[in-house]
């Protein structure tokens, strides 16, 4: 606790899934956090334990988020501080937790460019592998030298999950070269885009 007053921290672990390109946090009993609540005086620190409660073998990576809610202490009655919301601050943060199965597992990313029903052009990355990947940046180079740079993405794609990003409206058909910088190394792919983008497909992928 680096603050100047007592802090109470409540902790909850949820299973982390991705459906339709969106994160979903669901209650789960596979991981336990002990204790669930800690109180820290100014300058004080402590440890909490994350315990695994598993009924069967792991075949692919499983993801969780440890949610921390930090609440400052309510000032005593008659103290100089008031009970206003300014003095009673609540902070929330998440810690990502990944359970890995035995042996080597890796992500497998397929890329696609398509036009949504509302006309938006989307780049989608789908993960059919057994481990997550964190995407840092992506670069697209078009057949006429067009270049699209997407930096500071910090996007995690879980096994079975996907992420989508909007592209500029002047994307043209033809062969596009894609390079993605990830925590698993650089990935390259070729995307063949038809005039309406509906027939786009990933031709090559290297990790």
Question: Explain this structure to me?
Answer:
The strands form 4 sheets. Strands 10, 11, 12, 14, 15 and 16 form a 6-stranded antiparallel beta sheet that branches. Strands 1, 2, 4, 6 and 7 form a 5-stranded antiparallel beta sheet that branches. The radius of gyration is 23 Å and the shape is elongated. The chain has strands spanning 7-19, 22-27, 31-34, 37-40, 49-52, 62-72, 90-99, 109-115, 121-127, 133-141, 147-150, 155-157, 162-166, 174-182, 185-193, 201-206. It has 207 residues and is mainly beta. It is built from no helices and 16 strands.
Features:
disordered C terminus; 16 strands; 207 residues; 0% helix; mainly beta
Summarize the structure.
By secondary structure, the protein is an all-beta fold.
| Coarse structural class | mainly beta
Number of strands: 16
Order of helices and strands: EEEEEEEEEEEEEEEE
Count the DSSP helices.
0
Quaternary organisation: single chain
Contiguous runs where pLDDT drops below 50 for at least 5 residues: 82-86, 203-207
Strand fraction equals over 45%
**Judging from the principal axes of the Cα atoms, what is the shape?**
elongated
Write the layout of secondary structure elements.
Blueprint (H helix, E strand, L loop, with lengths): L6 E13 L2 E6 L3 E4 L2 E4 L8 E4 L9 E11 L17 E10 L9 E7 L5 E7 L5 E9 L5 E4 L4 E3 L4 E5 L7 E9 L2 E9 L7 E6 L1
Antiparallel strand pairs: 1-2, 1-4, 1-6, 3-5, 6-7, 8-9, 9-13, 10-11, 10-12, 10-14, 14-15, 15-16
């Amino acid at each position: 606790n680096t603050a100047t007053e007592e802090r109470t921290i409540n902790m909850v672990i949820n299973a982390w899934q991705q459906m339709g390109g969106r994160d979903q946090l669901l209650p789960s009993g596979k991981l336990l956090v002990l204790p669930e609540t800690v109180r820290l005086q100014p300058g004080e620190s402590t440890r909490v334990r994350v315990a695994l409660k598993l009924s069967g073998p792991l075949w692919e990576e499983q993801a969780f988020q440890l949610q921390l809610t930090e609440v400052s202490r309510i000032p005593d009655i008659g103290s100089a501080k008031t009970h206003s919301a300014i003095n009673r601050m609540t902070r929330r943060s998440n810690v990502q937790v990944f359970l890995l199965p035995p042996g080597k597992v890796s992500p497998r990313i397929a890329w696609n460019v398509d036009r949504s029903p509302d006309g938006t052009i989307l780049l989608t990355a789908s993960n059919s592998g057994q481990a997550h990947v964190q995407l840092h940046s992506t670069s697209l180079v078009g057949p006429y030298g067009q270049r699209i740079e997407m930096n500071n993405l910090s996007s995690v794609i879980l096994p079975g999950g996907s992420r989508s990003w909007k592209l500029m409206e002047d994307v043209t058909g033809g062969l596009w070269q894609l390079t993605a910088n990830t925590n698993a190394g650089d990935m390259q792919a070729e995307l063949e885009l038809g005039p309406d983008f509906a027939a786009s497909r990933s031709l090559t992928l290297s990790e």
